[in-house]
Design brief:
mainly beta; Neuraminidase; 5-stranded antiparallel sheet; 4-stranded antiparallel sheet; 3 helices
Amino acid sequence: MNSRTATSKGPLIVQRRVVKAALAAAALVVTAGCSSGGSGGGSPVGLNPSSGGGVTGSASSGRPTETAAPAKGSVKVVRTVAEGLKSPWGLAPLPEGGLLVSSRDEGTITRVDEKTGRTTELGQVPGVAPAGEGGLLGIALSPAYASDHMVYAYFTTASDNRIVRMLYDAKKPPGEQLGAPDTIFKGIPKGVIHNGGRIAFGPDGMLYAGAGETGSRGLAQDKKALGGKILRMTPDGDPAPGNPFGDSVVYSYGHRNVQGLAWDDRQRLWASEFGQDTWDELNQIKPGDNYGWPVVEGRSDDPKYHNPVAQWHTDDASPSGIAYADGSIWMAGLKGERLWRVPLEGTRAAAAPQSFLNGRYGRLRTVVSAGGDKLWLVTSETDGRGSPGKGDDRILELEVK
């Protein structure tokens, strides 16, 4: 239960990790264009001062353009908070204590007691149609949660992706604690892949959502389309004041599949993005900027496109959730099966990213600040692409420095 430690993966899964690591190492030896090394493992990275700034490698070779000083940091797995979760995706800490977690495939929201690991199902979200990468995805608490007790959710229906809000009433019996959903925004395109799904309220009280391009690449560059965007709206689902394209919820465009949103201590927005075959990205988001997809994947010399602050080969990351803590962005990697740290200095990376927990818990879906130097981390071995073992999936409590 919650007393399990970093060694809680079963022997079979450990063996699989070893085999996968050996195969990956062999592939690196055979593939001339790829290089191992770099701080903490993964692809090498370097500091590049060009447009957008940040940590990046050469698009032609994967080698660093300049050497970045290695970052200093550590990650300690304090404990396993909960285990046995099925396809967990979104996580929202409750101010009164407890963690809400969404199940992509089951369409349910569950409360986890972070002290005992006990789980209580709030209820099932009606209308969720899980398939491929779609289903019940991100969740967030209302900025006025203390008074309205509203939980927001982003999910895939039979026809679209949409955002709803529901009243959470803990006094009702388990399974009946979610009120009827109030749809605040609909019509976000859906697909078998690239549904985006992360939602978060910003320091401005507005709701931000990562919307994927569903595999239809042209949506990303079409400013009138909702796919391939970061959206910004009021808590009622209206275009937020100050949005860059007039009466539109579109905040930034040229995205492939954004699944990570977080703000730093200076209230700047950061987003992680899945690449296709070459580069995954960490971007600092500016309203109205074009982030390049599908014209550009990763860094470009074209000033029309906002360059990523950091980029990784897709085998090393495939990033989903991100969080800000201890002066760094922390990024959960799915295919990369590791937690990345990107120390910040202004809008740039101060040093080369470091990776932690490499292969230790499998695929990592969501990371959320738990206050101070603590993080909550959600694994994703039961999403159909992992190798689930005893105890999967789980929520971990981390201490970072």
